[in-house]
């Protein structure tokens, strides 16, 4: 199935919980990235390609 291969995270019954956890992870990674950039480690994220 195309949908399952494209979005493997949406397999649990409570889809809202899935989206909440994914959004929280997004916000956490963004906050971490901003903190690292303010600390002068922008090159680190560029190398990772994120």
From TrEMBL:
Q: Which domain of life is it from?
A: Bacteria
List all Basic and acidic residues biased stretches. Answer: 23-35
Locate the region Disordered: 23-50
Q: What is this protein called?
A: Uncharacterized protein
Q: Which organism is it from?
A: Candidatus Anaerostipes excrementavium
């Amino acid at each position: 199935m195309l949908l399952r291969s494209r979005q493997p995270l949406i397999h649990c019954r409570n889809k809202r919980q899935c989206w909440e956890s994914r959004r929280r992870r997004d916000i956490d990674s963004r906050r971490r990235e901003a903190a690292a950039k303010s600390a002068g480690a922008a090159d680190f994220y560029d190398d990772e390609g994120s």
